[in-house]
Amino acid sequence: MISAHPTNDQVRGPPSGLSAVGISKRFGGVKALTEVDLSIRPGEVHGLVGENGAGKSTLIRILSGGLKPDEGSVQLDGISRSYSSPADSRKDGVVTIFQELAIVPELTVAENIVLGAEPSFDRFGLTLSRHRANLIAESVLRRLRGDAIDPRRRAGTLSVAERQLVEIGRAIALDAQFFIMDEPTASLSPRESNALLDVVRKLRSEGKAILFVSHHLDEVLEISDRVTVLRGGRAVTTLPAKAATSEQLIELMIGRPMETLYPPRLPCSGPPVLRVRNLSRPPSFEDISFDLHRGEILGFAGLVGAGRTEIMRAIFGLEPPHRGTIELDGKTVAFRSPRQAVRAGLAFVSEDRKGDGLVAQLSGRENLVLTAAAEGGSGTVVRRASIRVLSEKIRQQLHIRGSLDLPVAGLSGGNQQKVVIGKWLLGHPRIMIFDEPTRGIDVGAKAEVYRTIQKASQDGASILLVSSELSELIHVAHRILVISGGRITAEMSSDDFDEKEILKAAFAAHLSSAATEAELRA
Amino acid sequence: MSAQDRVDMAKPEVTTRDHGAGVGRSLLWLQNAGLPIALVVLVLFFSIRSDLFLTVQNLRNVGLQAAALAAVSCGQTIVILTSGLDLSVGATVALVSVVSALAINHFGMAAGILCGIMTGAVIGVINGILITWFRVFPFIATLAMMSVLSGLALSISGGTPITGLPPEFTSLAYTRVGGVPLPLIVSVTVLVLVFLFLHYLRLGRHMYAVGGNRQAAILSGLNVSAITVTAYAMCSLCAAVGAIILSARVGSGQPSLGGSLPLESVAAVVLGGVSLFGGRGSIFQVAVGVAFVSILSNGLNLLNVSSYTQMMIVGGTLIVAVTFDQRFVARS
Amino acid sequence: MIMTKFCQTAAVLTIALFAGAGHTIAAEKLGASLPLTQGPFFTAQIYGMTEEAKKLGYDLVVLDAGGYGKVDKQVSDVENLLAQKVKAVLLNPADPTSFVGVLNDAKSNHVPVVGAGMPFAGTDGSVSPSHCEIGKALAEGAKALLPNGGQLAALVGPAAGFWANERWRCFKEQIANTKIQIVAEQASEPDAAVGLSIATDILQRFPTVQVLYGADDTVGVGAARAVQANSLCGKVKVLTAVLGDTTEELMKAGCMDYVVALQVVEVGRRSVDMADKLIKGGKLEAKDVVIPVVPVTPKNLSSIDLSTIRPPAH
Fold first, then answer.
1. Residue of A103, A156, A510 with shortest CB distance to B216
2. In sequence order, what are the beta bridge partners of C107?
3. Which of the 8 DSSP states describes residue C91?
4. Which residue of A48, A165, B106, B171 has the fewest CB atoms within a 10 Å radius of its CB?
5. Chain B residue with minimal CA distance to A307?
6. C91-135 confidence digits (pLDDT tens)
């Protein structure tokens, strides 16, 4: 089957490279992919974008052999291949670098690079020649400009970026031709991301083919030659990256003109509800003081590791502060456990949905009523009927897609996050803490999360919003506090939000020279 | 939704985990040096409390008593490195003891010992197949096998010890080479072989790969099932060596031999810093763990601590060791 | 914080432990190695040994292996006793055949070994009830309870227990030509709870069984409890060896019908006497001393002298 929409594929004659041809895949009654065509050619970086649930991961798994398609086929240079596992496709030179990195921490860098194809002293391949393994690793890493990594180092001591390099190195040692990279920059710092993009370019210049899957559209546009957009399991289009903009991609991903991602800010002027004074827990944070008003959305900006999450955890009773006071409605409180905080009307939507927010094996419904504060979930007997009514209400309110009867692990990231939020909303909290609530979820779900936050604040809840996406804070919050090195370095209200000023304040703790400080003060 | 914002605001190149890393490092240090220090303290303690402890005869006893545990712990180490567990080592020892005793009586010593070792290998392969092909959790598979094997040992032997073994077999346990008991020499040999295996053979490194990151092992085209089966086979082989040592010591085939070995071997391995989560640990540390468990038991005997109290102490030690393991994993 | 506290506690504990160091024992030591120290038999034996050792001025060290399944541990125990330079070893072996090697060690160290509770090869002497005699006495009991024959089910004790096998073997020999029919025999750990569940199952399966045999008073008590729970006291008779407190109570309640009492305290005492003699180089009158058994029934219970059978009640 040939692509239904015009792409460059047909023009070039006999297909070369790795292609998905007319691939369809169902899971139960849900169609995850419908007649998807995609090809990765030698010497090209092919971007793949789409909302969560659009079918990206299903497509990756099929291309890498982790799943078998119901219809269509995976072809290598025009010949149908039937892979039974990622290890199997690897033999054809197709290597997938998953987000969950495949590094053995106790083995050395070199041993990781040659894993499964170790050089040997003897004819039967029983022994391991560390010397030759180190030589191979050295030459591979040099090619990737990662020569700073000592092949003798234990892989467990490497940073995420270095581990990624080692994994790419392993593929190169195997002489892989096709690289499928799933969100490779998701947990990298800017400098590391740029270094990785350089590596990708290097691979391309050596004639390798790369499928680059990412949420970061700017990155995708920067690195790719062509970009394919997936929506609802279909490959909507494949277009040259040069001609595309990220707005265009977003519109293609969500299938309609880009609505305003952020709802209009509504005014707020309530009395103070939460009063925090001199809260300290060195070395995480010190002397944190602020007021939170009724219905207010108070943003916390700062670098990762600046101490914002720790402040929230201290307020919520997870890690009690060493000094300082917290007043709730004029009364001093000191929560020693989250349970006490929840009873007092606090809620915490954490960044780590799987770790903190959800019990993956329980159904969406059961997760919704998990907090003691939720009506229908309190008491010892679980009342199924009232759970049903309540969860249906929440589902409609938050537009949760997918079944609430199945384990939440099966829902998309955005919908999982909505279940977490819904769980707390059921308890009608007075103060809600959101810690990176939109990390790793797609555009559509983000918009809904923003609307939900705003709805909650309109209903009288006060919000503490920690986010590393500056535009998110600027558009949603009423006021922003900037944290740097565990201290508040700036405060701004919505009238004078300024991206540059916020950034300066965020880096304040890291700029040590007196000159810079003087400059900043002036 | 601007990727640029995220990039700007994300983690700069400053280390923010210094504090945590420091704690992690001291824990790592404690992992590596903690046990040898504890061992030295233990030895000091017993030598002060009992003037018999540091006598040649007693030290020889410790070596003799540690021999079987050392062999079994070597095997347990391999299995735990692949993030498995073998609770059937004790029952394997019992069955191998009975089988080899019967075989020695029928076919002579060399053939009999070989028979016992082969029995061990077969048991290990069965364990491995249950865990890989039938996907039974190692804990359950080997727990069930423990029951099966000890039932088998009892029914083959009719519940009574197999006696009438030639004196040259029994004397194996009491032979000394240069003053060192032969069983200890055998165990140290096993230990060295396991070390060579784990460090210099590809298959040995693959044990670390399977336990350290199963996904990585699969993606690198390793035959994880075969590796796992080999690990269990080697474990039972080591247990069989332990069984021969113990059988020679008690001069008979005992269907109830080795009852405390599952606990003691896991204790020695975990004390030796091998992570129960797999992929991390060294066999020489395990040797220190074995020494610790054996000296603890010997010293407590010298101090006339009742066996029931000893059981509590060994259990408590295991809990302390696992606590350190958990903390270490949580930090790293 | 927790770690600091932990370290402090550990430090205090260590100091406390080291503080008591360095004490020396003046008296000569006797070592005893037993497979277990629980149950009426062993507690009575230890009582007898301790009393007699005290009387003769010895310091008695008792090591227990922690169960019948731990023969290797018991072998180590004996080695440890030898390392402690005891003057003699009193050994009640879980399995006598397992001690050949270590007994040679004892011999080369010139430490006499007394079989305490069991005669076996390699010892310098033994004091014991004859387990075969116990089996025969139990057979006499069975004949008394079933004069016209009938069905008997047996709880034969630990599978690896030498004494249990020996009793059962001689019991069977003795009833071979009678009309007593054995409908079931089941091995188990010497534990009353295990005995109870096995006996309950036997009573379910063989409603016509008339006598339950319990190899000692752990499984024997279990059997009697099962009979009691099914309100069958008097209808299903229980036959066992070793007379402990519970056995006596059950006999008074009419649920225990024939007990071959062992003079366990006497076994303990006499084994220490024998060790004393061997240490002093005295000549033994007999190498293997057999302490006779005492059949006890509800009728003669009140007239039995218990001082040689079990420690006085507290």
1. A103
2. none
3. E
4. B106
5. B16
6. 999 888 889 889 988 999 999 999 998 888 889 999 998 889 999
Q: How far is C178 from chain B (nearest CA, A)?
A: 26
Tell which wins on pLDDT, B132 or B171: B132
The C-side interface with B (CB below 8 A) comprises 14, 17-18, 20-22, 24, 37, 61-73, 75-77, 79-80, 82-85, 95, 97-101, 104-105, 159-160, 162, 165, 187
Q: How many angstroms separate the CA atoms of A50 and A414, rounded?
A: 13
pLDDT digits over B233-292, tens only?
A: 999 999 999 999 999 988 889 888 888 899 999 999 998 889 888 888 899 999 999 999
Interface test with B, best of A52, A92, A106 (most B CBs within 10 A): A106
Q: Which two tokens stand for residue B275?
A: 């992570």
Which subunits sit against A, judged by 3+ Cβ pairs under 8 A? B
Closest CA to C104 of B245, B174, B254: B174
For chain C, domains (ranges, CATH) are 29-129+263-291 (3.40.50.2300), 131-261 (3.40.50.2300)
Joined tokens for residue A20: 């998905």
User: Secondary structure of chain B in the HEC alphabet?
Assistant: CCHHHHHHHCCCCCCCCHHHHHHHHHHHHHHHHHHHHHHHHHHHHHHHHCCCCCCHHHHHHHHHHHHHHHHHHHHHHHHHHCCCCCCCHHHHHHHHHHHHHHHHHHHCHHHHHHHHHHHHHHHHHHHHHHHHCCCCCHHHHHHHHHHHHHHHHHHHHCCCCECCCCHHHHHHHHCEECCEEHHHHHHHHHHHHHHHHHHHEHHHHHHHHHHHCHHHHHHCCCCHHHHHHHHHHHHHHHHHHHHHHHHHHHCCECCCCCCCHHHHHHHHHHHCCCCCCCCCCCHHHHHHHHHHHHHHHHHHHHCCCCHHHHHHHHHHHHHHHHHHHHHHHHHC
Query: Is-contact B254 C160, C-beta < 8 A?
Result: yes
| Contact flag C104-B173 (C-beta cutoff 8 Å) | no
Three-state SS at A188: coil
**Residues in CB range of A150: below 8 A, 6 or more apart:** A109
Give residues with Cβ within 8 angstroms of B119, minimum separation 6.
Answer: B95, B96, B99, B100, B240
**Mean pLDDT confidence for A60-81:** 90
Q: Under a CB-based contact definition with an 8 Å cutoff, are residues B305 and B56 in contact? A: no
Highest mean pLDDT among B6-20, B109-123, C102-116, C238-252: B109-123
Residue reference for tokens 């002036």: A522
Q: What's the pLDDT score for residue A197?
A: 93
Q: How far is residue A166's CA from residue A149's CA, in Å, rounded to a whole number?
A: 9
pLDDT (0 to 100) of residue C206: 92
- The domains located in chain A, with CATH, are 8-100+176-254 (3.40.50.300), 104-157 (no CATH), 273-521 (3.40.50.300)
d(CA C163, CA C157): 9
Tokens of B192: 């060295």
pLDDT tens digits, one per residue of B140-157: 999 999 999 999 998 998
Instruction: Provide the 8-state DSSP code for C84.
Output: T
Percent of chain A with pLDDT strictly greater than 90:
31
Rounded-to-integer distance, Cα C300 and Cα C215, Å: 21
How many of the other CB atoms lie within 10 Å of CB of A206? Answer: 12
Torsion, Cα of A262, A266, A270, A274 (10° steps): 0
Rounded Cα–Cα distance for residues A288 and A504 (Å): 19
Task: Give the span between the Cα atoms of C274 and C136, in whole angstroms.
Answer: 26
Burial (CB < 10 A; 0-12, 13-18, 19+), residue A255, is middle
| Long-range interactions of B19-23: CB distance < 8 A, separation 24+ | B19/A283, B20/B331, B23/B331
Name the strand (E) or helix (H) holding A348. Answer: strand A346-349
pLDDT at A212 over 50: yes
